[in-house]
Structure formats: structure tokens, C-alpha cells
Amino acid sequence: MADPKGFLNASREDWPRRPVEERARDWDEVYVPGALLPIIRTQADRCMDCGIPFCHEACPLGNLIPDWNDLVSRDDWRAASDRLHATNNFPEFTGRLCPAPCEAGCVLAINQPAVTIKNVEVAIADRAWEEGFAPPRPPDRLSGRTVAVIGSGPAGLAAAQQLTRAGHTVAVYERDDRLGGLMRYGIPEFKMEKRHLERRLEQMRAEGTKFRTSTAVGRDIDAAGLRTRYDAVVLTVGATAWRELPVPGRQLDGIHQAMEYLPLANRVCEGDMKASPLSAAGKHVVIVGGGDTGADCLGTAIREGAASVTQLDIYTQPGTERDEDTEPWPTYPKIYRLSAAHEEARELRTAPSADADARLFAASTLRFTGDANGHVRALHLVEVDAERRPIPGTGRRLPADLVLLALGFSGPDRSDGLVDQLGLGLDPRGTITRDADFATNVPGVYAAGDAARGQSLIVWAIAEGRAVAAAVDRLLTGSSRLPAPIGPYDRPMTV
């Protein structure tokens, strides 16, 4: 504990965002470049080095948070990088994309703002790359065993890197033309510039991991045949089967799933096209769904020049403080949070019908109506109570030229045939079943990440990737020294 009074003498200070008017005109990350490092040492000093650090329990990776806070406060960045990478393969991803359940579990958060754990994490990760503290770590020798990892999202990449470093020959199969899964085509550039992803992929290539893009296992390659070619197969295909909204008018043109819309905007940033065929430019946009994917659509539509953007959330607006009766510390509370996209919507007034930002809370979609050409022109909604029951007399109509459905995902997409070709068992939610060792009902086939856990956070995906790697390593060698931070049945802390 570098400064025993740090948490008393310094207040929380977050990485400042660029002005809304500036950042809404480009696709660069929303934060002020170079503004984090000057404040981060003081923020690391606020860590109390608790005897029982609940931030460890709140983080499925078991990150050694007090350790690297102390090292940062002492300006020992190399040691801080070693501690950080000991538990997290991709801290530059989680430091930008994770909602930080560790901060909800910070002991300091009992009665004041938590330590800026996420900011410290990303500062260490970026400094590690700048100073060369994250070189490739190829294995000293090869085991002679082979593993196929299907899917290159965070779970797949974590599993592949761990298994490669353990000496196994690993090939990652990705159905898209580029690697990264939702980090590539689901996460907008303004949340994480893809250069961070490319840098880590180059490290993995240097370590010996092989990548096969534009290859949909089950469609381009027979899944059962692939299984016979490898000693083990790890399924990390994600939960990409999106949820539908079965209301009248759903068939109208102009109503699309979020994951039909976001990849096209990302392809524009990749240089594949000049403009998205689903661009929101000049359109009245309504986003159905109040989660992070909806916020990603919101920020994207703002940058594309939408005439207006409104986001519907079926839940009532949460308060700004934790409800100690229903969500006591150290659980992750549902409180009113203002993402970068919502801050932009508030200042730019993209949704005149909304109260504070682009969101309409406690709003349920009744139907869509369109014009004579069959294109959507309006969304009809009604306010609901806490039990989602319609409140009489609260019906409203919103103009809508483009509707984006961001209602979450139910499990792996079965259209490519992978599930059926392997004969995988599925649970009632549609996710892949597995045992306590991450093994499916098919010998030698393992499942990790959202495909088996269900839709979750990036930090849980990386933890699953690390854990399934240890299970596969045990299968191939009889034992494993790889860490297994979680089990397949572990869940976030709840009351």
C-alpha cells in the first residue's frame, strides 16, 4: 500500500472523454489521448490493499488488483504488467469493454466512489505495449497434440493462446473474413479501435497459433470430419442467435437486427465500403433494447448522421444510487449509467421525446406501421409498469425510418449445421450442454464462452477460455499447470 491515506486524500477521477461535438464527427475512441497516464498513479494510490479484496471475487479472472495498483503507484510498470498478464490474456480489451464488476466489489465503494480499477488496467496494458513488456511467448517445445478452436471471439482467442503457450498446435477457425468475433464486427470503433485487436493477433501468430478465416465449420467444412483431424476441439462460437420481436408489422422493410446493422458500420471503418447500405444518415431511428448493444447502435447512428435516435428500454429507469436492500454491496447494481453514446445523445438532443438522454424507459413496442411501399414509418409503444403490464392511456407513436432490434441473444446459431453435425446436446435455453470439465456429450469436444454460458461479459468469456484451455490440456497430457479461474457453473455474485 504505497499511500495509506490515498483513498482519504484523493477523489475518483476517470479518464476524460473528448468533447461530444468533436468525437461525434469521427470514429476514434471517445477518450482524450494521453490524458489517462497523468492521473492514474494518484488513482492507484486510492486502493486500500484490503485484507480480503472483494474485487478479486467480483472479477471472474481473479485479477490481482491490489498488487498491480500498488506497483503502478510505485511506478513499476513492468512488474505491474507481469501481474496483470498473469491472470488476463487481453487486458487492453477488458480495460475498454468490460463494465467493471470489480469496481462494484471494491471495498471503497461501500461508502464512496470505487477505485478506477478499469482505468488502471488499461493504462498498464497500453504501457506494456509501448515499453515492450508483452512480447510473444512461444512454447519451449511442442507436445505433438493438435487442437481446433472454432470461433475467434475473446473466449476462443484466450483458449488458443493458453493452449499454444502450453505447447499444443492450435488452429483457430473463424467464419468471418477477419478475426475477433463480436470484438471485430459488433463493437464499434469508437469503443475500441481495432488496432488493439490486430496487435494481439500478431503476438499470437508469432507464438505459433494458426488462423483460418472465412471458414464456417458446419458449412464450409464438415464438423464431424474436422473432429477426426484433431486431438481435441473447442467450441467458442458465441451466442449469435438473436432474439426476435414478434409484433404486428415486423415484416416491414427497414426493421433490422442490431447485428445486421453494426457489422456494416464496422466494415466502413475497415475500408471495405464507403457507406453502409443500412446507414442511419438522415433517418429517424428507433432502437428497441436498453442494453450495451443498443447503446452501440445509438453511438453508431449518431456518427452516421441520423435525423433522430431514440432507444427504448422496457425496464423502469433505475436510480443513481445502489439499492442496498435488493442489490447490496458487493453485487453489481443496476443503476442509471451514462455511457459515452448516451452522453452524446443528451448533448446533441437526438431524441426530443426522451427525458434525459436518448432512452425512453418502461416502454414496450406494440406494433409497427409503414407506407404504401411496405417500409416502416412508425413505431407504436405503450408505457408499462414494473411487471411489464401496459398502462392504459399511455400509447405513443414515434417516427421510424430505421428500427434496430437489440434484444440480446439466446444461444449459438444453428444455421451452419455445426451443432447438428456433431450431435451436440443443448439445454432449454439453446446453449451447448457440458460437464464440470467443460466437455460436451461428444468425446474430445469442449465448449466455452457464450455458446455454453449464454450471453455474458467479455471478462467472463476470457475466463472461460482460460479455464477450458486447462481442461483440454489435462485431456491431452494427463495434467495441467494452466490456470482455471472459473468452473462452467460459476455465476456472478447475486443476493
From TrEMBL:
Keywords from UniProt, A to Z, are:
Amino-acid biosynthesis, Glutamate biosynthesis, Oxidoreductase
Reading the lineage from the top rank, the first entry is: Bacteria
The name this protein goes by in its record: Glutamate synthase subunit beta
Q: In which pathway does it act?
A: Amino-acid biosynthesis
Q: Which Gene3D superfamilies match?
A: Alpha-helical ferredoxin, FAD/NAD(P)-binding domain
Lineage of the native species?
Bacteria, Bacillati, Actinomycetota, Actinomycetes, Kitasatosporales
* PROSITE patterns reported in the protein's UniProt record: 4FE4S_FER_2
InterPro entries recorded? 4Fe4S_Fe-S-bd (IPR017896), DPD_II (IPR028261), FAD/NAD-bd_sf (IPR036188), FAD/NAD-binding_dom (IPR023753), Glut_synth_ssu1 (IPR006005), Glutamate_Synthase (IPR051394), Helical_ferredxn (IPR009051)
Q: Which residues form the 4Fe-4S ferredoxin-type domain?
A: 38-69
